[in-house]
Amino acid sequence: MKAMSPLEEREWRRTGWMLGGAVLAAFMLFVSVFMYQAFYAPAGVPGIEETFAVPAGSTFDEVAMSLVNRGFVSSTWEFRLAFSLVGGSDIAPGGYTLSHGTNVFGIASTLKEAPSSIWVTIPEGYRKEQVADVLAQALGWTDAQKTEWLTVDTASPAEDREGVYYPDTYLLPRSGTPADVTKRIVAHSSQVFAPYEAEAAAKGEKWTAVLTMASLLEREGQMQDFPTIAGILWNRLDAGMRLQVDATVQYAVGNEGNGWWPTVKPADLKAASPYNTYLHAGLPPAPIANPDLAAIKAALEPATTTCLYYLHDNRGVMHCAATYAEHLAYIRRYLK
Predict the structure, then answer these.
(1) What is the DSSP string of 275-303?
(2) Does residue 301 surpass a pLDDT of 60?
(3) Domains and CATH numbers, the chain
(4) Could you say which of 77, 143, 301, 321 has the lowest number of CB atoms within 10 Å?
């Protein structure tokens, strides 16, 4: 093979460098395009913020797939890589404010921090003071904020302070004011109640009466007993009898020191309260607690029964009677 002259050798090296530089430039362009496609925000309207909810118990893969489905990131693997690179270890359940104009690293950085909203569960059958305890503990309220929430008017008339906090799990902002929290919960409750309120109207029943009856059922028995207890209580009202529901007495005398639902003592039956159905005929003036849908459905569709009395034995089993003599016999058999 003929040896290259010095001039030819320099030309060959220059050509090699140019070729290598072109290959490197092409490679860098490819990497840049790839990185842009992979890690920059997917196509969408930039600047639009949304609340991204992470349900309790969600796995990382479920959260990543939800981000893809909502259009916040392009793929699950890029989010996993970005989350690792920003130092993320776990994603807490709750709500996060995300923008469609943010790249995957920004999304990952937000999700590695504490959520701006948290899940709060209101149990069924709680009265307003108990709901206040739940909210104050979950949201870190001061005593003043808790008092403010307790005094916020929630319905019309204002004395209807119970029954409008539907027992459910809510996504509530950590920085939300008591008034804002009230609006969110009451608005959701109104949506849930809407079809049942319409059903009550179609049957000629006042919604406040149905909701009040449902609150009694929620406090008086187990779910499987709701329809029968509803039938008994409506029977008593139709017969002009006093309801004599212990839960209404508990509501009248309950307090933070002795418990919101204390054991009823004989003296409590004389408590001077419009909620005491041992003293006053008819339903209480407003609900005594926040009922769930099972109680509301039972109030609207009570079981057909001839019973006018009921009691629960020591095992929690309900026994109903059509006559007072039969009821007394059940008391002797099951409670003595």
Answers:
(1) T-TTTS-SS-SS-SS---HHHHHHHHSPP
(2) yes
(3) 49-115 (3.30.1490.480), 128-305 (no CATH)
(4) 143
Dmax (CA) for the chain in angstroms is: 127
Buried b (16+ CB within 10 A) or exposed e, 73-93: bbbbebbbbbbeebebeebee
In this structure, what token pair is assigned to residue 138?
């979950």
Structure tokens at 187: 């608005």
Q: Which structure tokens are listed for 248?
A: 């209404």
Q: Which pTM does this prediction carry?
A: 0.81
Q: Are 324 and 335 in contact (CB under 8 A)?
A: no
Are 172 and 182 contacting, i.e. CB atoms less than 8 angstroms apart? no
Give residue for tokens 């309260």.
273
Residue 164 has pLDDT above 50, yes or no: yes
Mean pLDDT, rounded, for 180-188: 92
State the burial class of residue 260 (Cβ atoms within 10 Å of its Cβ: 0-12, 13-18, 19+): middle
pLDDT tens digit string along 230-245? 999 999 999 999 999 9
Asked if the peptide bond before residue 157 counts as cis, ω within 30 degrees of 0, the response is: yes
Measured CA to CA, the distance from residue 268 to residue 249 in angstroms comes to 7
Name residue, tokens 């003599």: 325
Helices (H), the chain: 6-39, 60-69, 76-85, 104-112, 128-139, 143-151, 178-202, 207-220, 226-238, 246-253, 293-300, 324-334
Q: Report how far residue 181's alpha carbon sits from residue 165's, in angstroms, rounded to the nearest whole number.
A: 11
